[in-house]
Structures are given as C-alpha cells and as structure tokens.
Amino acid sequence: MKNNSMILGAAAALLLATSAMNNTSQNVNASSNLVGTVRRNGGTLVDGNGNVINNRILGNFTSWKLGSQKSINGVAYYKVATNEWVKASSLNITGQSVSTTSNSSTTIKTPGYIGTILKGGATIVDNNGNSTGKYLGNYTSWKVSAKKVTNGNTYYRVATNQWVEAGFIQVGKPAQPQASTTTNNTNIVSTPGYVGTITKYGTYSYDNNGNITQNSFSYGTAWKLSAKKVVDGETYYRVATNQWIAESSMTVGNASGTVVNNQDPQEKNNQNTFQITSTAPRNFYDNSTNTYVSNPYGAGSQFTVYQVVKNNQGKYFFKVDSNRWLPANAFNTQAESVYTNATYEPYFATDVK
C-alpha cells in the first residue's frame, strides 16, 4: 500500500527541491547538465560508502539535477547532494554532460571483445561524452569494437556513436576451449524432442570444430536440441547447424519434459516456472529502462516464464529473461491459474517511453 503522507512529502520535495536542499546545506556539486527522473520506488539514497540514508527518499517521478557518477560496490550511482547518491538504474536520465577539460582521446580497436554490463546497469554516452538517454541493463552482453581514454576516463564502444564508461562494464575476449591433448573423437547421438534452457549469462555457441562463435544466447531462453556429443569429457548439444552449446550452460529436458542434467540451483528452487510457445511476434518490454526493445524470435519460439505480472489496465506480462518481458497476448492460451496467481503491479508498463 502506498503511504499517502510519503506521496505528499515527495510532491512537496519536487516543487521545492532547490530550496529544500539549500535549507539543509546539501549543495549539489554539479559536474553535468544531466537531469534524472526517479522511477517508481527508486528513490532510496545512500552515502558515499553505500550505506542507506534513513528518513530520506526521493519521491516517485521527481526530477533532480545530477552531479558526478561513480561505482559503489560495483553499482553505478549519481550524486544528487552532498554525500547523497542514487542508483543510476533508478533514474530516467536526460541532458548532456559538461566537459571541463579538452576532449582529447586515443581510440584503439578491440575486435572480438565482449563486454558485460555490471550490476546497476550503465548509461550510454555519444562520441563527445554526452548522455544519449539510453541505458543498458544489468548483465547484458555486447560486442565491444573499440576503447578510448578521454580526459583520464576509459570508455568502450558498444555501437556507432555509443560508449560505456569502463567502470560499468566487464570486458574481455570469450574464453577459447582448451586445446585437446588427445584425439578429438566424438560420438554424435540424436536427441529428438530435447529442449535446453540457458542458465548462465554470456553463453556463446561453438562450431563443429570447437571454436567459439559470436552468437550469444540470452539467459532463460529455451532451444530445441537436435544432437549430443562429448568432446574431451565435456558434453555439448546442437542448437543449429554448426552451433553447439555446452551442457554446463543450460538445463536439458528430454522429450517427456524430464530434466536429464543438473539444474541451476537458482532455477531448481523456483517452482513456478513453466515453458511456453509464442504465437505472435511482440517486442520485449525492458523494465530496467522502461522501453520496448527488439525481439528477434518469431512465432513458434519457446521461452521459460519466471514470473507473471498484471497491471492496472488488466494487461498481463510474462518475464522470460533478465529485465525482459513479453505481453501475454504473444503466447498461446494458458491455464487460468497462471493469471490468478499473477503479481499485481498497478503501474507496470503503463507509461512506456
């Protein structure tokens, strides 16, 4: 239940934000023209050490001028007042960064590198260091094509005119399989009806010769497995022509739906997941950025559903990956219990950018 007094207090804070901060001697050390609007229930404040500040909260949808950005315990934060910080992932950010020194930089190409966004997500800036208003969600992986250092800060390019600061992304080349010290004999066995569900972030496939590809597979997605092979003691399943995924990166179910390998502990403890097949193409809703993003999987694709949410418009959404949701009308009809057990989130996906 929402606390009415808290809402009124938050509204007052929005109208009097500047004077209120001056009255408490909390002066924002602004180093940018960025403005952050607080997402629903995202206004928790911490000090410079990451300790939660009691009795201080930023109201839902209030806007604040942002100061410097830093990582606290691996999570991105923006400064909103003296020793007061708010998570970057809790804000919708607009505006442009202000450069106080020359914007000189040296760019180095990084072919084959992959970057994974750390907990808390990351804001994207353009070639000049200005915020694009776009945001990359937790633990998502991206091809990194270049690296540059500007005014002492390191950035990685994830797309044309899109860069992420090094403190918010873990970058490296995908590990190559260890060279075989024995003959690479394999026995390929057909596995009709088998389905694999990805349980590890940053999962990539290997070709027939054991070389890693640039094809990544999202956490929680399900794939038909047509064959199985063992190479040097490691089991792989074929998901497409010349593409194999290590068994250790997924749970595998046979044609009867029985899991035939060790489940990921996190998913084993979740008794409410179920498999579902899409019947219509729909874009993903990303709840970390409050935007719709492209869904490359067409009708007939299989997904694992981890949570069901209903909003105040009577619409249902299925969670199929980290921060990825699909509307219920993208799938075939489900049992009534799926909807009656849905979590009620009144404002979920009701005001998408």
Could you report the average pLDDT, rounded to the nearest whole number? Answer: 74
Unreliable sequence segments: 1-31, 97-103, 175-185, 264-271
Cα-atom Rg, whole angstroms?
Answer: 23 Å
Terminal Cα separation, in Å?
26 Å
- Strand tally, please? 30
Question: Which structural class fits the helix and strand makeup?
Answer: mainly beta
Q: Could you say which overall geometry the principal axes of the C-alpha atoms support?
A: globular
Count of helical regions = 4
Beta-strand content bin: 35-45%
Report what the structure shows.
- The structure is a single chain.
- Helices cover 8% and strands 45% of the residues.
- It is mainly β and 353 residues long.
- It folds into four domains: 4-94, no CATH class; 105-172, SH3 type barrels (Roll); 189-259, SH3 type barrels (Roll); 274-344, SH3 type barrels, CATH 2.30.30.
- The strands form nine sheets. A six-stranded mixed β-sheet has the order 25-24-29-28-27-30, with no helix packed on it. A five-stranded antiparallel β-sheet has the order 14-13-12-9-15, with no helix packed on it. It has a five-stranded antiparallel β-sheet with strand order 21-20-19-16-22, with no helix packed on it.
- Strand 6 (75-81) and strand 7 form a beta hairpin.
- The longest helix is centred in the first third of the chain and has 12 residues, at 4-15.
- It starts with a helix and ends in a 9-residue tail after the last strand.
